[in-house]
Amino acid sequence: SDQGNRKYLDGLNPAQLEAVQQLDGPVLMLAGAGTGKTRALMARVAHLITCHRANASQILAVTFTNKAAKEMQVRLQNTPYDMQEPIRWMGTFHSISAKMLRRHAELVGLKSNFTILDTDDQLRLLKQLVAAANIDDKRWPARQLASLIDGWKNRALTPEKLPSADAGAYNNMGGTLYAQYQTRLKELNAVDFGDLLLHMVTIFQDNPDILANYQRWFRYILVDEYQDTNVAQYLWLRLLASAHKNICCVGDDDQSIYGWRGAEVGNILRFEKDFPGAHVVRLEQNYRSTGNILAAASSVIRGNKNRLGKELWTEADMGDKVRLIGHWDGEEEARWIGEEVEAMQRGTRGLAPKSLEDMAILVRASHQMRAFEDRFLTIGLPYRVIGGPRFYERLEIRDAMAYFRLVVSPDDDLAFERIVNTPKRGLGNVAQQKIQTCARANRVSLVEGARILLEEKGIGGKGAKELATLLDGLDRWRKQGTAPIVEVPLDDDAVIDDGATQTAMRLQESAPELNHVELAQVILDESGYTAMWQNDKTPEAPGRLENLKELVKALESFDNLQGFLEHVSLIMDNESEDAEQKISIMTLHAAKGLEFPAVFLPGWEDGLFPSQRSMDESGLKGLEEERRLAYVGITRAEEICTISFAGNRRVFGQWQSQLPSRFIDELSEENVEVLTPPGLYGHGGGSRDFGGSFGQSGLEQSAMRADAYNSPGWKRMQSRAGQYGTSQPKESASSAINLTAESSFMVGERVFHQKFGYGNVLAIEGEKLSVGFDKAGEKKLVARFLSKAND
Ligand code: ATP
Ligand code: MG
Description:
Elements: H1 14-21, E1 27-31, H2 37-50, E2 59-63, H3 66-78, E3 90-92, H4 93-104, E4 115-116, H5 119-132, H6 142-154, H7 164-167, H8 174-187, E5 190-191, H9 193-206, H10 208-217, E6 220-223, H11 231-241, E7 247-251, H12 266-274, E8 279-283, H13 291-301, E9 322-329, H14 330-346, E10 359-363, H15 369-379, E11 383-386, H16 395-408, H17 413-419, H18 429-442, H19 446-455, H20 461-481, E12 485-489, E13 505-509, H21 516-526, H22 529-534, H23 541-555, H24 561-570, E14 583-587, E15 596-601, H25 612-616, H26 621-634, E16 637-651, E17 654-657, H27 662-666, E18 672-674, H28 701-707, H29 712-716, H30 721-724, H31 730-740, E19 750-753, E20 757-765, E21 768-773, E22 777-782, E23 786-788
Parallel strand pairs: 1-7, 1-8, 2-3, 2-6, 4-5, 6-7, 9-16, 9-18, 10-14, 10-15, 11-14, 15-16
Antiparallel strand pairs: 12-13, 16-17, 19-20, 19-23, 20-21, 21-22
The chain binds adenosine-5'-triphosphate and magnesium ion (MG).
Magnesium ion binds next to α2.
Binding site for ATP: 31-38
EC number: 5.6.2.4
InterPro entries: DExx_box_DNA_helicase_dom_sf, DNA_helicase_UvrD-like_C, DNA_helicase_UvrD/REP, P-loop_NTPase, UvrD-like_ATP-bd
């Protein structure tokens, strides 16, 4: 009866079928981008369930990024098979580990409601430890310690296992501070990202019975993006798979892009050694991209010496060539891309109209996103940022979350420190110091310490009164949000698991006084936090209040506050669930495994991409990783791939001349079309027609680069050597500033704002404008969020 039910196998090629149907023992699928690895992996899940090899909860399916995990869920939903229940253990290494760790937290000295710290909290904590150790933070930045500790955790090294060479790092204090940091985390009932895996590995290693349970439970293990696993993840997987060895890993050595975070491409090459007799499947047909895109991607990755080397082919048409365009500066690049996006929405060059969902902008560094965000806000183009600085990292959101965290876990000292005097409660440094001292003396959390301090009258005046109000508030909110346990009469036919009928009464959770959404609002209002921003007269305040509303709204899709907090600490994207179509902006790292009909790859300039660090490094390792990143970027595109670069960029407030990326030179000419940048005329700088010769220079890349611009600054940069000089061409720098000077508004001028609509400028104070909007009334805004209404 299963036979007719195997629609999910339809259309798979023989190699994919092999990977799907080889159910017993280890399987390694090693293949290039877009060859259907993830698709085969999802078909394998369907097959396991259809063949009754495992039920949905006995399959462990892991991938690397949240976005990729979400994509797996979607793919599986689109896989035609008889799905009875969702695959509960499908997610990222981190989210799955967090779920496991909640069950066993006490084994590593934590409580199950532990907090997951983000990098900001982590750094604050480390700074405190560094200060306490009398280490000069200037010479030995805490950030450096943070990255050392991350690195050790990625290598599965607990403080006890740290080799002495490592322990001696950071002015001989590395090992000591690492141990102190771990102790402090336990006191705070908190973990950082690295701990999620490290603690589970420790638990597995120290508790064979627990490990055996999981080994029995997870009958099959599937891993996507295996090339990016680090040592800790590798150990975690190997421990779980070592009994039955039913593990299927898929990956591509050409897409290994997390070396800087401790990923070891060696893991993929070692697979056959670790799992002798592994079934290795290679896929070569690419189903994603057109011929030109695939050929251009292949031409770049061929520049890497350290690779297994595989050639991909496609049955698809050659399609459009990869488009290459140079711009004067980053603003111009963003402006042009905005226009291209709108043109694609309308349907351009004979192509069918595209939805914003079909487009993505993939940047090398997250700071590149700002130019696009600003531009898109101005023209009202809906976008979402995936990864990078995001909604949940905004100040007001972090403050609000600290309140929520403190209500859920009273031991969360970092959250307490963050909000104790926000809004101002007359609890400045002196009062906070007293609380710290009292907490330490009594070996309790700061909340408890504050309570004791109040009882002992160790603090007085306004501060004491306000502190008491805050502590009462925290208690009250916690109660209001907690479901009381009540005794209820038992239904006659109620049975418990073993079949025996219960006695007359049983305990049951009743509904809490407030649901978590109401509770969140109450916390923000009663703590005075909302009022703080309402009374704030800075131009940013209205936006912050909007964000707080958005935060409360976001809670609706969760069951409780704790689930939400966990979600926020784990997510790498802030994708709102609303139905509006949006273009995606994300880093190349976050784009792994995804695909889009149209992809923009901006900022292909030496020093940005490849990164300066990779260029400065001796040896090829860094540069080869950057090149793999370029390969990942190009291979995300299905139909249209547009690469761009800018001649000038503002770096830390300074204009800097840029050279087109060396990877541009490596693109195979026959697969590339060079576009003429039209946008420069829009600035009214008509005399500067350096765009003109651009398209005519043909496909010879270097000549194209040299001819691209007529400005003297550019001419000085024709040779690479020019770039390495310390002085920047002055002409170029100053003309760049002229070109991009903020468009000035005049009082009385008609303007447009994405959210508030049309209005008139009432007053101007430098960058800030007062605008009377037709509908929204008077608002103070920063000029760059406004556009002139008459264009
Ligand atoms: P990446 O390395 O980028 O993660 P991948 O190898 O995981 O790529 P998939 O994302 O699984 O590749 O597949 C790429 C595209 O090709 C998807 O749109 C997928 O649906 C399609 N595809 C995969 N296999 C086939 C097939 N046998 N026939 C038709 N289309 C396929
Ligand atoms: Mg994939």
